[in-house]
Amino acid sequence: MNGQLRDAAAELAAVLWREHTVYRERSGGVVIRGEHVKRWISLAPAGGRDEILLRAGRILDGGTTAPARSEAVMPLTAGTAELAAACRRLLAETAADAAPRTAAVTGKRRKAARTRTRRPGARRAGRGTRHTGAGSWIVLLCLAAVVAYHLWSVRAMP
Which of 39, 51, 94, 116 could form a disulfide with 69 if both were Cys (CB 3.0 to 4.6 A apart)? Predict the structure, then answer.
């Protein structure tokens, strides 16, 4: 599958950008960097057979990469044109997120923009969550009961 990813990435890079760099990640995926547009696209094997995970993000000043802003799953059998269209959509979402926010944008639209590009399972900063969950409290209560039983059994012995 790595050979197919590399071939798909090379074709896709030629369609998307004139200037690009294609390299392999340690995890087995392939990254396409467009330094002139300060964006990157990653193609990695997804959970399903013959599916790839497309991710797009920004390249920060100094050349470091920011975490992925948006992602999509596509079949590896999709043509270069379909993959390019999906990548352009992801890049557009990434560019929209990077644009400076104006006072004209309402709170409702900001919330929609944040939730649309958030990764599943990621928490937002500023949300009032408890430090200790219910499972932790149960473990602490069981531990306290064991300690209390041990102390009681030591005192009960003559």
Answer: 94
